[in-house]
Amino acid sequence: MLIRIVRLTLQPGRVADFLAIFRDSENQIRNMPGCRHLELWQDADASNIYCTHSHWDSAADLDAYRHSALFGQVWPATKALFAAPPLAFSVYPASVEPTTPSLPTT
């Protein structure tokens, strides 16, 4: 599973426009092949900063969405509302196994 986070800093007067775009497209995004989860977060300190948080079966599924007609409509409309460039990154859940420290040999 690939997790995608995109931080969006919006022009303060355009937040309502962004929320309308998100509301109009969120179910279509959730129904894209490979999309398992999508939610919108609002920054705790800055009301014009939002993050999208999505889970994808694979990087190929995310790329297919990013090359879709839907993305071609949603992203340019959203991008026009930015006050700063977006920050986007993808991560995989980490699996950390406990290890036994090496003992010094004497």
Automatic annotation (TrEMBL):
Domain ABM: 2-92
Pfam families: ABM
Biological classification of the source: Bacteria, Pseudomonadati, Bacteroidota, Cytophagia, Cytophagales
Name of the molecule in the record: Antibiotic biosynthesis monooxygenase
Superkingdom of the source species: Bacteria
Listed InterPro entries: ABM_dom, Dimeric_a/b-barrel
Source organism of the structure: Hymenobacter lucidus
Keyword entries, A-Z: Monooxygenase, Oxidoreductase
Any coiled-coil regions, as ranges: none
Molecular-function GO terms, alphabetical: monooxygenase activity
SUPFAM superfamilies: Dimeric alpha+beta barrel
